[in-house]
Task: structure prediction
Amino acid sequence: MASDGYRGGKGYQPYPEDLQAGTEPVSPEDGFVEDGFVEGGSYVAAPGDSYPDGAYPDGAYPDGAYPDGAYPDGAYPDGAYPDGAYPDGAYPAEQEPEAAGLQAASEPGFEPVVQLSEEDLVDEPAARNQPLIGEILVERAGITVDQVAAALDTQAVDGGRIGEILLRNRVITEEQLLGGLSAQVGVEFATVLLPDDVDVELLADLPIGYVKTQRCLPIRRQEDGTVLMAIGDPLNVTATDDVRTILGAEVRMVTVSPARIMEVINTVYTRRGDAVELGDGDEFSEGDAEELIDIIDLDDEAPIIRWVNSLMFNAAKERASDIHIEPGEKDVVVRNRIDGVLYETKHAHKQYLPSIVARVKIMSGLNIAEKRLPQDGRIRRKIAGRDIDMRVATIPTARGERVTIRLLDRTAVLLDMADIGMGPDHLEQIAEVIERPHGILMVTGPTGSGKTTTLYSALSKINSPDKNILTVEDPVEYQLDGISQVQVNPKIDLTFAAGLRSFLRHDPDVIMVGEIRDLETAEIAIQASLTGHLVFSTVHTNDAAGAITRLVDMGVEPFLVASSLSALLAQRLVRRLCPECREVYEPDYEEIRNLGLEPEAFFAGAIPPHPTTEKDGPAPPPGRAFRAKGCPSCLSTGYTGRMGIYELLMLDDQIRAMALKNTDAVSVKRAAINAGMRTLRDDGARKVVAGMTSIAEVMRVTQEDIA
Ligand SMILES: [Zn+2]
Result:
């Protein structure tokens, strides 16, 4: 590309329909182009650069520049065209007077140097040498000339824009279209934008409503004083001008997907301390997010309500597991736990602590007057379409009451076991176990390994009106219809053991005990199983075989363990590779060996892949694997969502005999492997071969298996 974004490339062919009277694009000789585009192809609007305003007083710009009509309509599938400015190539009349130099003129130092008039608009357009979007996409996105031709045919019949048609035909992705358009006008394109990239100081004078409408977001001031700004539409010069005027600095655009910009806007404006205005009633919506409430400036109750609502709304949106509202020395600090890590999200002046705590207490049915004792409550709300259960705990500290809110997404639990990555063979074996009238299904794994989800999933599978199902849990994470769930409460001596014991007087068919961690609970659970009840529970051990020795170590007689257990399921959660950006590569021998696979077999494509579902997408070629890369749709993590990897040990005669003799866990595991059990790492390796996750993920959550 040459020193500007308009004259590089070749092959401009104006479309007759685009060359309407008075809308011809302008010549490069007018001078503004040189000012507006610097080397590297990035647009830098210099002070005094009259490029968009003076140059295109009547909307000439888009037409000439996008002769093939491939303007990024397709890039805004929700119809939210950034400023509604160019849908048909017409620069918006209502914006024109303002945009056309008024701001620049009113601002010292921004006096337009070049004022163009109609006479300056000559026949030879600046964009004449600009490559067609179709050509760019052939080169950059690897689409074929035939695909472009097919899109042109569609366009000839149905109208529309080439880029949009290609996007709709799934020939290109939104990212490719945006990348192509950026290349066309010489603006950089970034696939990644993170909230942490943004310097919130720059946003002080930019209302959220403005940046949302324009799909733009200043990122940071660079060493040379220019401000780097993300923009959803590389042609949106209005935003560039406005931001330049407001910040008093030159602006360098970088194209980022509009959806990503909107997400980051929501996050950074929230972090800045603004509250999101929420809809009425219990249904929180994002609709009124434009209005900002500064809690510091207002002293009536409504802002507190909105502020607290916005805490919950944002936590749910970020899929946080916990909200911590903590009194600090000078202010109230709010932190959200996301994927196990705490992030500071909000501050408020300390004087608002009592009101905030009171509001949370009202919502969760707690006693507002009681400030000296810890309290527990619950809030259930529909937030952004999801049914969220919030467990609220308050505790008095020296600096005032502190609140912890745990968020439980009730809509998330209704997953079928197959949806969370369980293979057909495991599903079949588990189904057989949970259809028996008695026996114990024990799930093992560390906290956060998805044990409860698996048990809930198993419970919902067998839940029917003719079954009496009782659970005792700590906490009750999800409320299941038709199942009586009891919350452990040590304060009133309602322990797992006490709950279980009283359950047996309620004639249950199925009992779920949240966790077995002491002999008393273990004994009652085993007793229940032996007297004709199906029992589900969990225990903290690394692998399936370890659960047997764990129970014996607690003091349970080996013969009771051997006779009551039906199956032991060890599990871990691994992240699912983002299907948009996962990358094929050839792993080295060491990686394959570490994964527990024979390299020769792997590279020969002889390892059977784990069965996949439609959403897993195709497997990598034989001898290859996928690894994480990162794109806007996965927030540049390379992963979207999680799934389980499993190790299922069925208690057959051989294993029972070993359990009876109190055989060590390693020997039990070896026997099970010899009988065909897949270890956690094996199951993970099969999922790597199937392209569902990465080697790194499996290695992260599993240990080396015994030889
Ligand atoms: Zn991705």
Q: What stands out?
A: The pocket of zinc ion is lined by residues 578, 580-581, 630-631, 633-634, 638 (CB under 6 Å).
